[in-house]
Design brief:
By secondary structure, this protein is α/β, with parallel strands linked by helices. The protein contains ten helices and seven strands. A seven-stranded parallel beta sheet has the order 3-2-1-4-5-6-7, with helices on both faces. The longest helix is centred in the middle third of the chain and has 29 residues. The radius of gyration is 19 Å and the shape is globular.
Length: 268
Amino acid sequence: MKLKGQTIVLTGASSGIGAEAARLFARRGARLCLVARREEQLRDVQQAIQAEGGSAFIYPCDLSDNDAIAACVAQIVADHPRIDALVNNAAHSIRRPIEDALDRLHDFERTVQLNYIGAVAITLKLLPRFLEQGHGHVVNVSSLSTQIPIPLFSAYLASKSALESFTRSLQAELGHKGISTTVVYFPMVRTPMSSRTAIYKYMPMMDVKKAAGWLVEACEKRPARIARPMGKVGSVLLAAVPGPVTRLPQPLFRGMDKMLARRLKKNG
């Protein structure tokens, strides 16, 4: 699928993976509708794309506000007669043990609102245009950690698992009407979001450029999923033997956190 001339709506486009992906899409000739909360940063990304001869439009929007999403998509639809793809990249993550969240239901509520409800809301608002056109591709970003269960991210992973289920339903119900979907299972990526956890300074992570390349691949090749081989194997094992797959790696994860903490303490 050639991206030249396609109009792509990209959320979380003001920094990190989204900003890098915006530049890659634009270099392939796509027209970008950049969506994020921070207008100044969005404008910086837009100007960088325009400086290279690309085409980008900005739509500041708080994706935790469903009314704001409705207004944002209405403007995008009014501005662009054809929209080819939506990339739901915006996300919020919380690293916290469940035992420390017993009185923090709001952690789960705000994470689900942005990562799941917000992504579903913008998808539903764009679907009429996709169905009218007879085509439209939806890329939803998930995590390797839904394929290989890890501790301490219960709110984040629950929201991403919900988004995966919605993505499968979307494909199953509307695939015959030209709607296609891709789920992208990112491993840890070195972004401002992951950097908020101090011990992750010493954890090997995917770099932003490679992660952004996965989003471009999702729109160019339109596979059902993009994931590392380890994640694909993990998905099969999790479906076949969920008990052992969930239980046995836990000492390894706890040991890794202790090792990273010692390294941080030693090296700063």
